[in-house]
């Protein structure tokens, strides 16, 4: 599973810089996903997939973040729980109205990170971007969720696993409103906490 809008790639590790997507503060980015078996088009969500398995691992939580220093620091601008990702839907994410400009696409990154339901794995995918932002703007204070856990201390996220490997339940309407409405911006309601990401420990306990 990978972002196809903005056009993404694995984070560095020897990979060449990808295509640059130009964004503006206040713009809602209709994030879309791609997986094997889907035609290489991303102008709208997928309508079918060969074999019926999009490898979304029963859903989970997704975070969308910005980095202005080549991936050393990340600030969250969007979150979706339980049903993300899914190639059959768009996932709106607002570039905060008060985000600062970032014109060096080698350092300016838009990130998708994902903790799945049915496997204990963390996924991370990035896009090179340029952002036309606000004068004296500020990035949000919420940091990307990360954990360094050695087996068997594994973590996964609640999902919509009853939907199986095919089409899931899609983005929660309340979360869409928050992601479109500035909740994750500097000064917004997310502050340094954000949404409850519904993380589960090795015995299924809520974290």
Automatic annotation (TrEMBL):
<protein>
    <submittedName>
        <fullName>Uncharacterized protein</fullName>
    </submittedName>
</protein>
<feature type="region of interest" description="Disordered">
    <location>
        <begin position="153"/>
        <end position="176"/>
    </location>
</feature>
